[in-house]
Amino acid sequence: MTALADLTIVRTLHATGAILRSAAHVGQGLAVAVWDRDEVAQTRYDTPNHHTLSLYLEHGEGFRKRLGNSWKCSNGAGDLCLMPARSTSDWDVSGPIRMFHLYIAPQAFDRATVELFGMDPARVTLRDDAYFRDARIEARVRATILSRHWTQPADRVAVTQAGTDLMTYLLAHMTDRRPDMPRRGGLSQAASRRVRALIDARMDQPLCLDDLADAAGLSSFHFARGFRQTHGETPHHFLTRLRIERAQHLLRQGAPLARIAELCGFSSHSHLTARFRAVTGLTPSDYLRHCGLRPEPAEDAPR
């Protein structure tokens, strides 16, 4: 994807003095960002070189978008805006806001159009819309993207998949056509073996959806759906489960918790403990007791 600094809306917001709180590339042709802004101004996004999905996280009641000779006003937090590539838009800004952005390269959107729906991208147009609500999009952003560490190994696959799923959702529900999702075959046994081998070899390193898809020899779009069809779970859940299984093995071997976190791709002792409890329902200490083993003193205490 184009570097973040070269994305039209990123460049425009930087010029206004808006504060970029966090940003990351999350897959082929996808990036996410959180912005803070507080001023009275008018802003024009002139023929952006990417698609943008915006979610108002906090405030924003004083914003509005020009529609011809009139304005459409924001309702504040929870409002969504969809800004297609090459579509110029004018905005009246007043007061504070915190907003989430998903940036989509047109090439990635067109590729998904062909690979997932078998459609000619020239016949598909992303809707230009502002200040609408969609509980599924908002929940996906808040629960799956904003709640995670975008660059941490244990979370990168989930964030990448969430970004891909959001793009697919926009394609299916917010274009000029609404095709049904076609049925796709699952992964071959050889592809599944290559993915598992990659995870085993690099479990202590960051792994994103694109890494796993490359090992399978598929695009990330085909891979995510084929994987779920074959394994009955998402790549993120599969990877997290394998990390926890390795952590359980190392716990039984008596390895220190900090070392286990490092070997299993978790950013810290506390991160491992949180994921361990989410998967097993037990803390590492409780798990060791269930195994009849003595935990390290205060091993579950945050550091």
UniProtKB/TrEMBL annotation:
<keyword id="KW-0238">DNA-binding</keyword>
<dbReference type="InterPro" id="IPR018062">
    <property type="entry name" value="HTH_AraC-typ_CS"/>
</dbReference>
<dbReference type="GO" id="GO:0003700">
    <property type="term" value="F:DNA-binding transcription factor activity"/>
</dbReference>
<dbReference type="Pfam" id="PF12833">
    <property type="entry name" value="HTH_18"/>
</dbReference>
<dbReference type="InterPro" id="IPR018060">
    <property type="entry name" value="HTH_AraC"/>
</dbReference>
<dbReference type="InterPro" id="IPR050204">
    <property type="entry name" value="AraC_XylS_family_regulators"/>
</dbReference>
<feature type="domain" description="HTH araC/xylS-type">
    <location>
        <begin position="193"/>
        <end position="290"/>
    </location>
</feature>
<dbReference type="InterPro" id="IPR009057">
    <property type="entry name" value="Homeodomain-like_sf"/>
</dbReference>
<protein>
    <submittedName>
        <fullName>Helix-turn-helix transcriptional regulator</fullName>
    </submittedName>
</protein>
<keyword id="KW-0804">Transcription</keyword>
<keyword id="KW-0805">Transcription regulation</keyword>
<dbReference type="GO" id="GO:0043565">
    <property type="term" value="F:sequence-specific DNA binding"/>
</dbReference>
